[in-house]
């Protein structure tokens, strides 16, 4: 019995020695090269590590070897950056990152995640200091920031993932001078009557909206991930030829030119219509015209618009010259469709219902604001199924159709060709996600 116990003790000691030897070898051959590469860039500059702590798994994740270096007061100098929003590029292994940016007065102008930084605009040109921490954590891990202690210390692995991978962070500290100037780009410099030109305004600082002035209409700017966006309509009756566009950004005015090309929309024979009463006209003006001047919402649509009626026949098309008793009149700013009573009237795109009521001039009327000054006006519905303030999605029913539907799509107060919207054609869909 005594021999058996001694044998068992010897085996146990042998196992311990073996495990110790394995651990020693594993420890010795696990180097800092096992940590992920700190491939982080701000703008076009590679950032230098200023402090780190990594736990590298040993023995299939049973233990960790720690590599650590405390953060110092050293600040990397990046020099002058000319991009108003220097891109923050993180390595593929990054789980999340926290970024804080201060101005020369020590006031924090931004603090948050790398994802939120994508929508941040610097308040002004000048000098800034930033601190960044980039983490790699196991999926679902909520480990708080830890201090590394002495390099080489062994810790127990958290075992939150299999196979175990290094867990930890790199810290960065850097300063830079921002010297950006605005840039303006048009989706096109030539557009047919009824079309839309997209405007991208980038490379600017501050939250003050740019102003866009042109005789083609009153233009409003809306924020975009990269700066500001605007859309310029070439209405059905816009004069052919060159039109100057002046974009003022932070006191600097940039000028572009758009050439409007004439388009023949054809003619349509119409029977005389009875004149509306002054009361009906006043009601319409009081309900609808103020919408033309409403501030531009953020962009709400995504992709092409849908025709409100799935089954229809055109009665009067956009831009057609109306002929009554053989005499040519004005062009049509709207499109009138023959529809099937009771069919669903669909929201052309996502938006907010800003008008839903019966008007003497246009019958049951629904107006949807799609953002950036784009609104759809739907007249002559049989019934209304939404209320003002409701959020609607593309294709959602806003009511039922009667025998005729009149639809008018406007940028501000200027009507544009709806068929281009249904075809996802033109400046309204240029750089949609930028």
Automatic annotation (TrEMBL):
Keywords, comma-separated and alphabetical: Signal
Pfam families recorded = Peptidase_M23
Tell me which residues make up the M23ase beta-sheet core domain.
339-404
Q: Which CDD domains does its entry note?
A: M23_peptidase
Highest taxon of the source? Bacteria
User: Which Gene Ontology molecular-function terms are recorded?
Assistant: metalloendopeptidase activity
Note the InterPro entries from the entry.
Cell_wall_metabolism_enzyme, Dup_hybrid_motif, M23ase_b-sheet_dom
Signal peptide annotation: none
Instruction: Identify the PANTHER family for this entry.
Output: L-ALA--D-GLU ENDOPEPTIDASE, PEPTIDASE-RELATED
UniProt-recorded name of the protein:
M23 family peptidase
Q: Which organism is it from?
A: Faecalibacterium prausnitzii
């Amino acid at each position: 019995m005594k021999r058996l116990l001694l044998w068992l003790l010897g085996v146990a000691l042998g196992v311990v020695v073996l495990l110790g030897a394995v651990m020693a070898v594993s420890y010795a051959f696990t180097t800092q090269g096992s940590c992920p590469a700190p491939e982080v860039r701000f703008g076009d500059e590679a950032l230098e590590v200023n402090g780190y702590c990594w736990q590298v798994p040993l023995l299939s994740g049973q233990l960790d070897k720690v590599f650590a270096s405390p953060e110092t007061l050293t600040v990397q100098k990046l020099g002058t950056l000319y991009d108003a929003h220097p891109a923050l590029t993180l390595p593929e292994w990054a789980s999340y990152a926290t970024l804080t940016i201060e101005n020369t007065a020590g006031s924090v102008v931004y603090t948050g995640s790398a994802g939120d930084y994508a929508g941040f605009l610097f308040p002004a040109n000048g000098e800034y200091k930033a601190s960044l921490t980039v983490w790699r954590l196991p999926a679902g891990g909520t480990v708080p920031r830890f201090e590394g202690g002495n390099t080489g210390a062994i810790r127990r692995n958290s075992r939150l993932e299999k196979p175990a991978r290094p867990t930890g962070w790199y810290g960065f500290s850097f300063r830079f001078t921002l010297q950006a100037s605005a840039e303006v780009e048009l989706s096109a410099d030539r557009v047919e009557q009824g079309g839309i030109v997209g405007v991208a305004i980038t490379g600017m600082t501050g939250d003050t909206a740019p102003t866009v002035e042109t005789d083609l209409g009153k233009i409003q700017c809306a924020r975009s991930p990269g700066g500001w966006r605007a859309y310029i309509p070439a209405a059905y009756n816009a004069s052919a030829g060159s039109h100057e566009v002046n974009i003022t950004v932070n006191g600097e005015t940039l000028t572009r030119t758009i050439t409007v090309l004439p388009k023949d929309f054809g003619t349509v024979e119409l029977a005389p219509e009875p004149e509306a009463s002054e009361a009906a006209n006043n009601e319409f003006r009081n309900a609808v015209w103020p919408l033309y001047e409403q501030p531009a919402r953020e962009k709400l649509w995504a992709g092409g618009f849908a025709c409100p009626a799935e089954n229809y026949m055109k009665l009067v098309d956009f831009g057609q010259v109306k002929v009554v008793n053989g005499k040519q009149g004005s062009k049509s700013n709207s499109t009138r469709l023959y529809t099937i009573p009771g069919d669903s009237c669909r929201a052309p795109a996502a938006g907010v219902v800003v008008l839903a009521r019966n008007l003497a001039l246009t019958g049951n009327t629904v107006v949807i604001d799609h953002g950036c000054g784009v609104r759809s006006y739907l007249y002559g519905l049989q019934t209304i199924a939404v209320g003002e303030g409701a959020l609607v999605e593309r294709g959602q029913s806003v009511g039922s159709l009667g025998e005729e539907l009149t639809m008018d799509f406007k940028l501000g107060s200027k009507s544009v060709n709806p068929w281009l919207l249904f075809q996802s054609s033109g400046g309204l869909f240029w750089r949609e996600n930028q």
